[in-house]
Amino acid sequence: MILVVLFVSLSVILLVIGLYYIIANRVRYIIQITDVLLLSFYLFVEVAYFILFTIAFEGSISEETAYLFWVSSVILWIFKLSIPSSVMVYTLIRKKIRIVPIFLFSILGGIIGTYLLFSPSFQSAIIDNQYAYFLSDELLLTLNFFYNGLAMFITIFTLLKGYNKISFQMMKNLLILLTILYNINIILYLGFLLNPEYFFLRLIYLFSILLFYIVEIFIVIARFDLFVVVTNEIYDFIIFHRSGVLLFSYNLARNEEIDESVLKGSILIGINHILSNFINKKNMLNLIKMKNGDIIFEYNKEYGYAILTIVKHKNKIIEKAVQLYMEKFAEEYSTILNKINKNSQLIDTSEFKNAKQLLYNYFKPFMV
Q1: 3-state SS assignment for residue 270
Q2: Whole-model pTM?
Q3: What angle do CA 163, 105, 108 make, to 5 degrees?
Q4: How far is CA 209 from CA 46, 69, 251, 284, 286, in A?
Q5: In this predicted model, what pLDDT tens digit does every residue of 275-330 receive, in sequence order?
Q6: C-alpha to C-alpha distance for 354 and 162, rounded to whole angstroms
Q7: Separation CA 105–CA 139 (nearest Å)
Q8: Where are the domains of the chain?
Q9: Is CATH 3.90.950.10 correct for 234-366?
């Protein structure tokens, strides 16, 4: 009983910590409220499964209640197993086939869940004052092994297939670690399903699940920003005054400022042409498609400057980060920009030296 209380308490603490950091740092992570809710829901499902699984073996509760907890944990296991695999495929495989795993998990998961609800597939027994559940239905056993094997295959295949699409080495290392832990959990779960009478095997499985949770929460706390980028990159971040003067430029792929002499010729002509077309229009965010990337362009009419962000591919996260940077840059340098615009004076670009720190505040995930 003490061990059960310890495991349950630890899982709840991890859940609270994870939810707190996700919600409190939503702006810093630049994630939408929908994504916050989905991520929070996933963490809740993980912990709910762990609690149900842990309590289901406790001999101090009634057999009916324990069996209900056990069946609920099996259904939650089937459900939660599909989430990381589906998200991984959706992120790393940019083709129509990425919806196939979701379809397969839905069909198989629905069959297994229905089977569990309407058929007494497990037989319970008491061993050393604890419940044990023996799977007596061969069809359900086969379906379980196929479902779990499918989840293992999909995660490993997706990681190998999409490995080179992942932007940063640390992100690659984290995904490898999570994939290994994910598959170890599945193997231990299947081993326990075949040998439910071994308490030591169940204990090892519970510790492996906790380790997986701890790694997830650590990522949420320390390096969740890496999951913002995954397969995306920002190459160049350029700020120009409407007069055509370069105020600040930075190459995030190399983590270094861009010398003005590099941005010359046709590049400067193109940028000045874009600026001239937007001077008399409202603030807006435009996208320029290129063969190997996108250019996100935003112009601030009030202060007369523009931001060009050259990215691997546009998404809402980068758009939001550009908008937040735009607002902060205007707030930080409003006095200087007003003085430049009113007096038509020469621009001292050294006055914008803090622009790099602002860049770090909003684009840290891309500067690794």
Answers
A1: helix
A2: 0.73
A3: 145
A4: 9, 18, 40, 47, 45
A5: 555 555 544 546 566 666 778 888 888 888 888 888 877 777 778 788 888 888 88
A6: 37
A7: 17
A8: 2-229, 234-366
A9: no
